[in-house]
Amino acid sequence: MRSPKRPRLRFLAVSAACTVAATTLAACGSDGPGGGSDSLEVWVYQDGSTTIQQDFVDQFNETSDIKINLTEIPGDNYQDRMRTAMGSPNAPDIFFNWGGGSIADFVEEDMLIDLTDTLAEDPEFGDAFLPTILDAGAIDGRYYGVPMRGVQPVILFYNETLFDEAGVTPPTTLDELFTLVDTFAERDITPAVLAGGDPWTELMWLEYLLDRQGGSELFDRIRNGDTSAWGDPAVLAAAEHAVHLVDAGAFGNNFRSVSYTTDGASTFFAQGEAAMHLMGSWEFSNQLSNQPEFAENDLAWATFPAVEGGTGDPAALVGNPTNYWSVNSRVEGEKWDAAVEFLKLHASEEYASALVGNGDIPTTADVEELLDDAPAPEYARFQYEMVRDAPSFTLSWDQALTADQATPMLDNIEKLFSGQLDAEQFVEAMQNL
């Protein structure tokens, strides 16, 4: 996202920020937040949905005296550049993020505007969004972001043509998943493509395995600071399941060299080289944009299977509730007024319709009536209903945890999937974060 779900990086020093911003982000201008009176610098994660943001920037610029300059940052560089630039004179005025832990450092340093009162003072604006989605991106009950994309649960995508040719159906249990691994391996098809070059894709497997094994309450404990929860037997069991999938050949032999941010995994999947792909819901939009024939004729979807003996609800979800726009605290005066008007565009039915047309499910209320206009109404309804009916929606671990925990966690997950740590060593390493 090209995934909007990215691993988080450590907060870099301002001195480095100024150097990087000056040399690699010159296109963002030199005025910085609040520095110029005639423009707002807006950064967005570059992917298949960026055209929608550009369309609405163009629409905004037609009537506003304060113009918006939209800078698209490639997915594999977005987090690094964003975290580097914040606090420097070249920081964006408004920027794309994941809410929650992804912006906690900035909130602590008073780098963001608290939007809580702005939303409350205009009910038409604040009430336009699902409360659970606003809450998911909040920090200590305060809102520092406005939803700007669709909901993003992690979904088990599969190639329906390959499944039909093999005479099989999507797995409903982990045992059935292992059976499918053998079935497709015998047919010289990678059972499930995995972009091991980007360890956050491995995280998705472990998130679901733990959720199905021990329930969503277990990670809630971890997120709330109970590091002893990493020692729960369910964590060990989930790690063992992950190792067994690797050893069984579920991801092939070369998954460590596959990347997602360069579209390698998605292309491999679309070319019929893999039968399944566990990925965020944005995968549909990517395929629709880049491999439309595959998206229309072969792409299908299912929920992640249950784990036999686990206590987790098989209807529970993991992923990103959505993405958010946040505003730099240096924005003020006429630029702040313009920023608010820009944010309000994202509460409109017109914007929701554009997201639906791109295969996304908006976070605004009363969206169900728009789903028949989606490129694949069946997929839209599937995604909407799974989010609506989910008993829990766990935010991606690397976004829910602070950066000082998320980075070593991703390192440990990468070592688990590569065989550098066994399941017991992984649990020990996580307890020692």
UniProtKB/TrEMBL annotation:
InterPro entries: Bact_solute-bd_prot1 (IPR050490), SBP (IPR006059)
Pfam families recorded: SBP_bac_1
Entry keyword set: Signal
The organism's place on the tree of life at top rank: Bacteria
Gene3D superfamilies noted in UniProt: Periplasmic binding protein-like II
PROSITE patterns: PROKAR_LIPOPROTEIN
Signal peptide: 1-26
UniProt protein name: Xylobiose transport system substrate-binding protein
Organism: Streptomyces zhaozhouensis
